[in-house]
Amino acid sequence: MKIQLSKFISAMNYTETVEASIDMEEIKLRGVSYPIRKKETFPLVLKNTGKNTVSWEFQTEITLGIPCDRCLNEVSYAVILNVMEEVDFEHLDKTDGEFSYLDDKSLDLDVLIFDEVVPKLPSKLLCREDCKGLCPVCGTNLNEKECGCDRTVADPRMAAIQDIFKNFKEV
Ligand SMILES: [Zn+2]
Ligand SMILES: [Zn+2]
Fold first, then answer.
1. Which of 21, 56, 62, 171 has the smallest C-beta neighbourhood within 10 Å, fewest atoms?
2. How far apart are CA 147 and CA 9, in angstroms?
3. Could you count the other beta carbons within 10 Å of the beta carbon of residue 122?
4. Ligand closest to CA 68
5. Are the beta carbons of 30 and 41 closer than 8 angstroms?
6. Pick from 44, 56, 46, 45: which is nearest to 86 by CA?
7. Ligand that lies nearest to the alpha carbon of residue 137, given by its number in the listed order
C-alpha cells in the first residue's frame, strides 16, 4: 500500500488515521521466500508535526512461515511491529540507503514493513526443541519415522574416528 504524504508535509498540524494494509504475500530475502501466513489491517496515524515534518505511528503483527533449521518443516513465527517515526522532508537524505520506503512524497508501506521485519527474523528456528532433523543419507524427516540408514558414516568426523579404530585393530 502506498500512502500519499503531500498534505501531511504541507498542512500544519494536519493529522489523519489511515486504515493500512500490507499488499505483499511474502518476505523475500537473499533468494529465500518466507510466506506471510497472517496479516491484518491496522490504523496508521499520520501527523504533520512541523514545517515539512511528518510522523507516522502504527502497531501490527504479522505471522511468517519459516522453515525449521533442522527438518525444514514450516514453523509459524509472529513478528510484532511497533513503529514510530518522524521525517523532516526538507532535509531528507536518502544517500545512505535509509528511507528506501519513501518515494518522492509517498510512503511505500510494504517496503517499510519489509525493513522492519528483516532485523526481527530469527537466525535459527526449530519446530520443537528436540527436532531430530532430516536423515543426512536419505532425507527422511526423522521426527516422522526412522529410516534405518547407517548415519554414523555420514559425519566425516565420525568416519575419521572409525578409521583410527580400524587401523588400531589391524596393528
Ligand atoms: Zn524441525
Ligand atoms: Zn535415512
1. 171
2. 63
3. 12
4. 1
5. no
6. 56
7. 2
CA of 27 to the centre of ligand 1 (A): 21
Task: Give the count of beta carbons closer than 10 Å to the beta carbon of residue 92.
Answer: 11
What is the CA(128)–ligand 1 centre distance, in A?
A: 6
- pLDDT tens digits, 115-158: 999 999 999 999 999 999 999 999 999 999 999 999 886 566 65
Q: Average of pLDDT values for 98-104?
A: 85
Q: Which ligand sits closest to the CA of 145?
A: 2
Provide the pLDDT for residue 160. 63
The arithmetic mean of pLDDT across residues 36-41, rounded, is 97
Q: CA 59 to CA 24: how far, in whole Å?
A: 17
Q: How far is the CA of 127 from the centre of ligand 2 (A)?
A: 20
Rounded Cα distance between 163 and 152, Å, is 12
Ligand 2 centroid to residue 136 C-alpha, Å: 7
CA distance 13 to 50: 7
What does the DSSP 8-state code read for residue 133? -
Q: Give me ligand 1 centre to Cα 153, in Å.
A: 22
Q: Which residue has the cell 589391524?
A: 170
Interval between CA 63 and ligand 1 midpoint (Å)? 18
Question: Which bound ligand lies closest to the C-alpha atom of 127?
Answer: 1
